[in-house]
Recover the amino acids of this structure.
């Protein structure tokens, strides 16, 4: 059995709201798992059930092979880092980090050794005498993480720990959290709505929507092999382009473009004749101009966004709008006609009714 096992977990509140539906997941010891999804998708609720802060309505939860549904939070060997730093304002950094060990009655010399070792890992050695109000947001979050990792528990839970930080601090803290995980080797479950955090931190990502798991996989799996439209659109920045159309005589039309789907669907083409289909491609997959072994699409430049290392180009193709990512040296003129190619191998097709990927 895996280190953590969640089997058919459901959360139903007294008012009848079904927050989490049949959640199934096995987590190995030392893994870094990220729950990602839009606000209200059930990711934090699932984390709180793992922590013992929410009761499990139905299903079974095991920690290292032991049935954990009825265990209290302290019995589970879990430490949690919240979105709010939850530091004690009347205590300095040293005492905040040491607080959990002090409650356990650990010897003062042992506490001192562990606090200083933890502070060294987090770059807080020079701040141990400071009060929380004298720290930056990133420093406060490191103190909160220090208070968690000093306990040497088996599982760390982090609920949107970087959401209160500015963009530069988030980048710095992301790398620090990744380094802490490598040093401690602890099993970590991390909740975020930020797909960049998920992609850069996770061994595996759990994508959730409306309380249900949409896909579980490595960042590479989710980016290159999305299971459905939701995952494909959630992972990636700018998001994937989607064009809806009906297959007629083996072709799909949108705007002034008619594309022959036989190059992609092959023998499956007849199955989708007359059906709604979603043609999709990532902004960075395109090549400007016409290219062989590709779908060639025509449109008009509506807007450009110069971002330094690349330019986002918004293209209007009559009824449909798409986003392209191009080299800044190739930035087209506003309102100019544009032709670009999408290689056959870079195209995704989704069933228009189920929104599941069509495996070609």
């Amino acid at each position: 059995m895996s280190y953590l096992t969640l089997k058919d977990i459901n959360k139903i509140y007294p008012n009848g709201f079904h927050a989490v539906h049949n959640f199934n997941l096995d987590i190995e010891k030392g893994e870094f798992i990220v729950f990602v999804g839009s606000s209200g998708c059930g990711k934090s609720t699932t984390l709180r059930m793992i922590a013992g802060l929410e009761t499990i309505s139905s299903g079974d939860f095991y920690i290292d092979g032991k049935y954990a549904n009825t265990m209290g939070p302290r019995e589970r060997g879990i430490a949690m880092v919240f979105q709010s730093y939850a530091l004690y304002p009347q205590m300095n950094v040293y005492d905040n980090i040491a607080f959990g060990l002090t409650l356990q009655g650990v010897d003062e010399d042992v506490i001192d050794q562990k606090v200083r070792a933890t502070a060294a890992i987090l770059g807080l050695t020079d701040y141990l005498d400071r009060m929380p109000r004298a720290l930056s947001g990133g420093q406060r979050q490191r103190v909160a993480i220090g208070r968690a990792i000093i306990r040497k528990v088996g599982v760390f839970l982090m609920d949107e720990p970087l959401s209160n930080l500015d963009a530069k601090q988030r980048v710095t803290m992301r790398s620090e959290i990744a380094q802490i995980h490598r040093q401690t080797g602890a099993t970590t479950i991390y909740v975020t709505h930020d797909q960049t955090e998920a992609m850069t931190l996770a061994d595996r990502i759990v994508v959730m929507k409306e309380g249900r798991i949409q896909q579980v996989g490595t960042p590479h799996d989710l980016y290159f092999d999305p299971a459905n439209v939701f995952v494909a659109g959630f992972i990636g920045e700018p998001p994937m382009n989607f064009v809806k159309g009906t297959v007629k005589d083996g072709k799909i039309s949108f705007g002034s473009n008619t594309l022959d789907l036989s190059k992609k669907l092959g023998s499956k083409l007849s199955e989708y004749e007359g059906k709604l289909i979603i043609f999709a491609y990532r902004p960075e997959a395109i090549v400007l101009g016409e290219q062989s072994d590709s779908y060639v699409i025509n449109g008009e430049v509506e807007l450009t966004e110069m971002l330094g290392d690349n330019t986002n180009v918004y293209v209007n193709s009559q009824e449909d709008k798409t986003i392209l990512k191009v080299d800044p040296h190739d930035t087209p003129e506003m309102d100019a006609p544009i032709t670009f190619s999408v290689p056959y191998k870079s195209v995704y097709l989704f069933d228009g009714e189920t929104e599941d990927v069509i495996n070609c």
About this structure: DSSP finds nine helices and 20 strands in the chain. The radius of gyration is 25 Å. The mean pLDDT is 92.
